[in-house]
Amino acid sequence: MVRGCGLAAQGAECAIIFAAMSGVRLFVYGSLKRGGRHHDLLKGAVFLGEVETAAGYALESAGPYLELVAEAGAGNVSGELFEISESLLPVLDDFEGDAYIRGEVTLSPARGAGPVAAGKLGFVPGRGETALAYFKKSR
């Protein structure tokens, strides 16, 4: 938390500080998760919480890695949500390489997380929340 901008603080100064800190939300489901072998690539990222996709997504195995696919009739995929700087996106694009493409995924708090977790994530009930994610590229 930024010094002087606690929950009770108000005013334009805090709003400006928080706006400057904002980035993009990224959903990760494999080696970029906390404890994963490539998590260090998310240096400076802020962990927002455990989430899952809306129905219609699945993971496919690609050797030691996983690939996210949008698939009608599929279930939910569990993962983690981070806020990252936009400047990190080209680094992640290079890391993911030609096999993946960055896209948008629809999310909800992890099952059993409840309304408190949804509020901490900044999720608004009834609104489809989205984040960026890396999907398997069609070959």
Question: Keywords, please?
Answer:
about 140 residues; alpha+beta; Hypothetical upf0131 protein ytfp; five-stranded antiparallel beta sheet; two-stranded antiparallel ribbon; 3 helices; globular; disordered N terminus
Give a brief outline of the structure:
This protein has 139 residues and is an alpha+beta fold. The protein has helices at residues 12-21, 89-96, 114-121; strands at 24-28, 46-53, 57-62, 65-70, 78-84, 100-109, 129-136.
Integer count of domains: 1
Query: How is the biggest beta sheet arranged?
Result: 5 strands, antiparallel
Number of E-type strands: 7
Q: What class, by secondary structure content?
A: alpha+beta
**Shape estimate:** globular
CATH topology: Hypothetical upf0131 protein ytfp
Topology:
Elements: H1 12-21, E1 24-28, E2 46-53, E3 57-62, E4 65-70, E5 78-84, H2 89-96, E6 100-109, H3 114-121, E7 129-136
Antiparallel strand pairs: 1-5, 2-5, 2-6, 3-4, 6-7
